[in-house]
């Protein structure tokens, strides 16, 4: 499954910590959603068997949801919606409703920088295939009229894509939703503290058994000797990173990556990495993608104007990596 342009290093690596007495987390990693997903239970009150069965249940729940929302599986609800674009409304599960309603809200708030109808353009670039390539500009121009979140009608358990040829690409939000579902499953099993880390989209909950806060590493987008750019010290919350180094290929000197500007159909080029914190992983995931597309100025305005969102924007100027940190994140962030 590993593709040449897909990096498996986690954008937000979970930092180990000194422990006194605590025997360490129970953890497991599985391949889900095209990435290595790690679940760690930090609950000293649970036996190893109890922790293992909670983790097992959480992975089970996450893999059911993945098959429901994946854009790649022909049998998924998202794929069915796209096949019926321009036709009648399709009945959908609550999962799809929640994801699409949240996606539309993020689209509204970001002025369309986030847009789950990016599917036809994403297909031309082929980032979910083994052979991504730079499409002809005429091909991009020919599909841009099928990209507009305002052509999604959501209501009453049904969804309709109003124009033929539209295609939902849930890649910028669905992973966050599935991470949230993993956390919910762990909590339902009685786990009081832990982490579900979907490689770039993660959520921590409860109190760390030893440290005052959880420490999350932010990956350096252009690593030389430092693989981490900085560290966030956080209470329970979700953290998502969108970067131009996750899925990309070089076309001459142009870095062609998977976060696309819905206005142009080309990779967004203002930022190189955006990390967002929010209560839910679904929100953090979608807003990280939205802020990335908006660029450092407008992206920071969006973060500052939205209570509950904080973030770190990395961008390049004259070969140097610079950063902007939102006002509510400054205390939590330390540069390495
Ligand atoms: P990942 O964490 O998987 O690297 P991101 O959360 O950064 O992904 O989102 C990138 C993915 O979102 C792309 O692979 C694509 O599926 C989708 N996407 C790309 N551009 C946009 C956009 N402007 N709006 C919404 N989704 C997008
Ligand atoms: Mg995202």
Can you offer a commentary on this structure?
The protein is globular and about 60 Å long. The chain is an alpha+beta fold and 336 residues long. The chain has an eight-stranded antiparallel beta sheet, with helices on one face. The chain has a three-stranded antiparallel beta sheet with strand order 3-5-4, with helices on one face. A three-stranded antiparallel beta sheet has the order 8-9-16, with no helix packed on it. The protein has helices at residues 48-69, 77-83, 94-109, 119-125, 137-143, 174-188, 281-294, 296-305, and strands at residues 26-32, 35-41, 90-91, 152-155, 158-161, 194-197, 201-205, 214-219, 228-234, 237-243, 248-251, 254-257, 273-278, 310-317, 320-325, 333-335. Residues 1-14 and 16-20 have low confidence and may be disordered. It folds into two domains: 4-54 and 173-335, ApbE-like domains (T-fold, Roll), CATH 3.10.520.10; 69-172, T-fold (Orthogonal Bundle). Adenosine-5'-diphosphate is lined by residues 114-116, 118, 122, 127, 169, 171-172, 175, 200-201, 242, 246, 258-260, 262, 285, 288-289, 293.
Overview features:
336 residues; alpha+beta; T-fold; 2 domains; eight-stranded antiparallel β-sheet; three-stranded antiparallel β-sheet; 8 helices; 16 strands; 29% helix; 25% strand; globular; disordered N terminus; binds adenosine-5'-diphosphate; binds magnesium ion
């Amino acid at each position: 499954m590993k593709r040449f342009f897909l990096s498996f290093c986690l954008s937000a690596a979970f930092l180990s910590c000194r422990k006194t007495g605590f025997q360490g987390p129970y953890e497991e990693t599985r391949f889900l959603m095209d990435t290595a997903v790690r679940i760690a239970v930090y609950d000293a009150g649970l036996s190893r068997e109890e922790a293992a069965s909670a983790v097992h249940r959480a992975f089970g729940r996450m893999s059911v949801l993945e098959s429901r929302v994946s854009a790649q599986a022909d049998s998924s609800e998202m794929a069915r919606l796209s096949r019926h674009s321009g036709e009648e409304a399709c009945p959908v599960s609550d999962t799809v409703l929640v994801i699409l309603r949240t996606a539309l809200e993020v689209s509204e708030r970001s002025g369309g920088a986030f847009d789950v109808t990016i599917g036809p353009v994403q297909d031309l670039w082929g980032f979910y295939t083994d052979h991504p390539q730079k499409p002809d500009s005429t091909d991009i121009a020919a599909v841009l009229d099928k990209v507009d979140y305002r052509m999604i009608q959501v209501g009453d358990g049904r969804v309709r894509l109003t124009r033929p040829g539209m295609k939902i690409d849930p890649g910028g939000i669905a992973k966050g939703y599935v991470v949230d579902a993993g956390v919910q499953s762990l909590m339902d099993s009685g786990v009081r503290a832990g982490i579900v880390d979907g490689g770039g989209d993660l959520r921590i909950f409860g109190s760390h058994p030893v440290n005052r806060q959880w420490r999350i590493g932010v990956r350096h987008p252009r690593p030389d000797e430092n693989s981490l750019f900085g560290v966030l010290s956080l209470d329970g919350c979700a953290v998502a990173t969108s970067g131009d180094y996750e899925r990309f290929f070089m076309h001459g000197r142009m870095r062609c990556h998977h976060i696309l500007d819905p206005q142009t159909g080309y990779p967004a080029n203002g930022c190189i990495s955006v990390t967002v914190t929010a209560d839910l992983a679904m929100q953090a995931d979608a807003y990280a993608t939205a802020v990335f597309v908006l660029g450092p100025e407008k992206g920071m305005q969006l973060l500052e104007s939205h209570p509950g969102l904080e973030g770190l924007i990395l961008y390049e100027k004259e070969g140097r990596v610079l950063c902007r940190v939102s006002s509510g994140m400054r205390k939590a962030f330390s540069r390495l």
